[in-house]
Amino acid sequence: MDSSIWATLSSLSSYLIPLLLLLILLEQVSYLKKKSTVPGPSLVFPFLGNAISLVQNPTRFWETQSDLARTSPLGVSANYITGKFVVFVRSTDLSHKVFANVRPDAFQLIAHPFGKKLFGDHNLIYMFGQDHKDLRRLLAPNFTPRALSIYVPIQQRIVVEHLARWLRLSNGTTIALRWLCRDLNLDTSQTVFVGPYLSGKSKERFNFDYNLFNVGLMKLPIDLPGFAFRDARIQNMGVCAEESKKKMKDGGEPTCVIDFWMKDIVRETEAATESGIPPPPHTSTADIGSHLFDFLFAAQDASTSSLLWAVALLDSHQEILAKVRREVASVWLPESNTPITADKLREMKYTEAVAREVLRIRAPASSVPHLAGKDFLLTDTYTIPKGAIVFPAVYESSFQGFVEPYRFDPDRFMDERQEDQVYKKNFLVFGAGAHQCVGQRYAINHLVLFIAMFTSLMDFKRHQSDGCDEIIYIPTICPKDDCKVSLIQRCAQYSTHS
Hints:
The chain has helices at residues 2-35, 51-56, 58-70, 92-99, 115-119, 129-139, 145-170, 178-194, 201-217, 238-249, 257-275, 285-315, 318-331, 342-347, 349-361, 394-397, 419-422, 440-457, and strands at residues 76-81, 84-89, 107-109, 174-176, 370-372, 376-377, 383-384, 389-392, 458-462, 471-473, 477-479, 484-489. The chain is of the alpha+beta class and 498 residues long. A 5-stranded mixed sheet has the order 1-2-8-5-3. Helix 10 (238-249) packs across helix 12 (285-315) and helix 13 (318-331) packs across helix 18 (440-457). The chain is globular, with a radius of gyration of 25 Å. The termini are far apart. Mean pLDDT is 86; it is low at 224-234.
């Protein structure tokens, strides 16, 4: 029996091995044809390409792609990852060209090479045209100045509670801030967006699932048992939407984003029913649950990255830290036991400039992957082939155009210099085009509020070590050492119930 099996395998191998070699050859030829004259590896590992090097050391991988793009007059480079041809776009102008052509016959924003398995087919990021515009119209009222002013005291209360916990943990000794910032942001975003509908075990389960989701983002994108990508799923947030809808129907008062949103949806749905027409699009429980996850995802990892870099950069620029403290003290004092209102937040112009400079010099999401739906003429001499994954480089654009771009200099965002206007096209932190981040003002407010509270409530000292400021991906960029600091209380007193 064994001998017959071996004989069969031996016979098949005479066909399978040549077939495998042919497939490998065709793969290499296809890659080289798509690459054309664009700089990139001359040969790629069969089937996997450079996926392993991307997962093992994403920082080095993207630095290499950037270096290759610098050698090209086009400002682009190429690679190959798990069967996908990849184009890295370093040029700011070409990045804008990609962002401006998100449509069915050009590019599709995907957030991850296998994003639909992670985010779901009907996620906001996969929408086009009028459907996308209608949904953004529904979302816009959640981020008006009035709405944002309601969120500020909620954010402050949670930030203060977490900072108090950090002080107790440190008590002058060194602690790592990455997971603490993550917990702070999870708490803040969950409370602001979902309010009371995620509590107790539901919140613990969400946090656990969210961690699996992030681990899956950074692993080989293979959807099989035993691979972390397989577990990168998030429970549908629809149950939260359903509870909020019931509360709004019963006449309850809104206390969070989902309540305000659901109040409008209930009103529009009831009006449609009375008129005998279908309910508005994007108002089903499943749709809203999916969009809630969009908010939580967007508000979480990018903000964690920004908070960590704010601490690291302020520690290494003491003169800027001193200016922030002086400005905050002129507007608000911890001992006052009063909240930082939205109006007070707007008075902190230099602190906001610091926040914007943190975002510029350390853009949390270094690139935003898009899928080429058809062959796309990127320049007169190069056409991106259909099916390619295209990475417009947000991070690289921050170091183009700006005066002394590698210098941490918040004054560039002040009225005297207005580099945010002069080099507006190079500030791609929140994307560009139709899919530009709808919650960017919320994100900036959160960072400004954190900087104001953190610098006022505590003195901090960074634990310096070799390579501590090197960039790692988790999946947004963070300091390699997880931002280790020692903390002691700075103010005489403060309230955790502001």
